[in-house]
Amino acid sequence: TMGVAEGIETALAASLLVGVPVWAAYSASLLEAFVPPKICRELLIFADRDKPRIGPRIWRPEGQGMHSARVLQARMAERGVAARILLPNAPAEDFADVWAAKMGRAA
Question: What separation in angstroms does the CA of 32 have from each of 67, 69, 78, 104?
Fold first, then answer.
């Protein structure tokens, strides 16, 4: 089992919270394109809780973070990798916020 998150801080926080190695993709678009090592059979996708983006050219009512996580999850299913999306509880926007709250600090 390994994980992937959008940003470096989120990946580090997710790893500390869950106890698995977590790679940082660096952006939502790179999260969608992430390719885990061939030995990976289970992938935890630590999605960001972004605000909805609704406009003439962009339709992301669930937010870009969840959209990118779903795109990656679908790609992993095609490769035979079990992928599970984890989303932080509101009001946290990402797992760095969850870690900061656990440590009693603001993110």
Answer: 9, 7, 14, 32
Structure tokens at 1: 């089992």
Q: Which helix (H) or strand (E) element contains residue 22?
A: strand 22-24
* CA pair distance 6, 3, nearest whole angstrom: 10
| pTM for this predicted structure | 0.92
- The tens digit of pLDDT for each residue in 28-40 reads 999 999 999 999 9
| Closest listed residue to residue 80, CA positions, set 43, 47, 33 | 43
The b/e string for 30-67 (b: 16+ C-beta within 10 A; e otherwise) is: ebbebebeeebeebbbbbbbbeeeeeeeeebebbbbbb
What digits encode the pLDDT tens for the residues 76-101? Answer: 999 999 999 999 998 999 999 999 99
Tokens read off for 103: 């440590």
Other CB atoms within a 10 A radius of the CB of residue 69 amount to: 27
